Amino acid sequence: MLSRTGLLTRSFLELLFSGSRSKSIVRLSQPCALRNLTQTELGNIALSPDELRFLQSTCTYLNKEYLDFLKDFRLNPREQVTASFIAKDDTGSDTDIGEVNLVVKGSWVETILYEIPLLALTSEAYFRFIDKDWIYDGQEEQAYAKGMRLLEAGCIVSEFGTRRRRDYHTQALVFRGLVKAKKEGKKNGLPGEISGTSNVHLAMRFGIPPIGTVAHEWFMGVAAITGNYETATKTALSYWVGCFGEGVLGIALTDTFGTPIFLKAFREPIYPITPADQTGLADGVVESETSANGSEKAKTFAEVFTGVRQDSGDPANFVKIMRDFYAKEGIKEPKTIVFSDSLNIDLCLEYKKIAEEAGFKCTFGVGTFFTNDFVHQSTGHKSTPLNIVIKLSSAAGNQAIKISDNIGKNTGDVATVEKVKKVLGYEEKVWKLGDEEHRWETDDDQGK
Q: What is the pLDDT of residue 68?
């Protein structure tokens, strides 16, 4: 049995690929320990020269201006992060159980980098101080077995497990197993692929491509800042393409305000952002029937983006909606669906069959199932991962909200959520498997 030692965050690169004023509430004890870990771990990390060179050579879509910013950037958790604790039964003891409320305040470009390490820190603190009835034994072998099953089935899989991992060491063991499976799969000509990871540090360490998609926070922030939910999706997509270019980071997240609302913007032509909008986020783009070079009709977002990501609601219904959408738009080239909502092996195989029968390519972003799959040593029953998220709470003094394709994933101010639903004509969706509170609590998930 390995001892639980080592730092939560080993590298500045673990801050990237995810993330403003954000809130997270979780049941936990020892809040002082969590606060001290936050200040110690996050306040002392910086981008190393080797990491900078890795970003320059691998993440070529990150421009020099942003990389120069990262070189000198330091998180300031003492000033930007506050943690409050409400005990369920306050005895004054450090072992009291209750709710920890984490709030991050500051400029968006800085606070967005707190999301992943704060969530990973919260999970590690819980399993270090509260649920301690588990061991590391078998994690590498378990990850290898999962990887091999997915590769044998022809699944293209990325590891998305940093934010809810048991701890850093667990994720490293998982990577060893997945890398072993990747090599074995290539050797034996298996049809699947371990295609990447959203953890840029471990991508660098293990030689796996860093990979990710746009976050809900981008759409949430644009909507809050502009105050126009009816045009926010189109504005957010326009800035995204304007920053990275056509076909770069080309998987679109559809469910921030509901997929039907997203698709109204997705079918629109791409127009350049007005020059005045380059220095500060503003609502609106130039209306023109030609592309930026003026020589041809502008392409639509649906044409330019290589695919979409499904992160809430019924996946089978989502596939049908997207098939009908692309057919109506006359788009015949193969598109990709990235599934990323609480996956295990059985779900990957089910969704793969559904997507391919509808003519889609598909890939899978698998997170908690890889990096927090344990049993209690005393009972053999599942040691349940924390169901934790950090979402944008407000921007420019306005409430920020997310609706999604399932009522269980609504986040933000309730009054604002209801107001936006009415403005957008949102139709409520309830999916029988969409219970976020108990998604990971059954023993049936173990190893599947």
A: 96
Nearest CA to 120 out of 270, 1, 11, 283 is that of: 11
Compute how many other C-beta atoms are within 10 angstroms of the C-beta atom of residue 384: 17
Contact (Cβ atoms closer than 8 angstroms) between residue 301 and residue 236:
no
**Residue-number span of the structural domain to which 149 is assigned:** 136-448
Write the single-letter amino acid at 245.
G
| pLDDT at res. 392 | 93
Element (H, E) at 147: helix 139-152
* Same domain as 118, residue 157: no
Q: Which mean pLDDT values do the consecutive 10-residue runs of the chain (448 residues) have? A: 36 60 42 57 87 96 95 91 83 76 91 90 87 97 98 97 94 97 97 96 94 93 95 96 92 96 97 60 52 69 97 95 98 96 96 98 97 97 91 94 88 94 88 61 56
> What is d(CA 377, CA 370) in angstroms, rounded to the nearest whole number?
19
Half-sphere exposure of 397 (CA within 13 A, CB side): 0
Q: How many CA atoms lie within 13 A of 63 on its CB side?
A: 6
Shared domain check, 156 and 215? yes
| Residue pair 182/194 in contact by the 8 Å Cβ criterion | yes
Tell me the two tokens of residue 239.
């800035």
- Measured CA to CA, the distance from residue 241 to residue 250 in angstroms comes to 9
Contacts of 27 (CB under 8 A, 6+ apart): 88, 97, 98, 99, 100
pLDDT of residue 26: 41
Which is nearest to 447 in space by CA: 140, 233, 142, 92?
142
Q: What's the confidence (pLDDT) of residue 24?
A: 41
Give yes or no: residues 251 and 115 share one domain: no
Nearest alpha-carbon partner for 211 in 144, 160, 175: 160
Looking at residue 429, what is its pLDDT?
74
Q: Which residues contact 241 (CB under 8 A, 6 or more apart)?
A: 270, 301, 304
Give yes or no: residues 153 and 114 share one domain.
no
Q: How far apart are CA 116 and CA 212, in angstroms?
A: 13
Question: In terms of C-beta density within 10 A (0-12 exposed, 13-18 middle, 19 or more buried), how is residue 10 classed?
Answer: middle
Q: Report pLDDT for 212.
A: 87
Q: Among 115, 130, 145, which residue terminates a domain?
A: 130
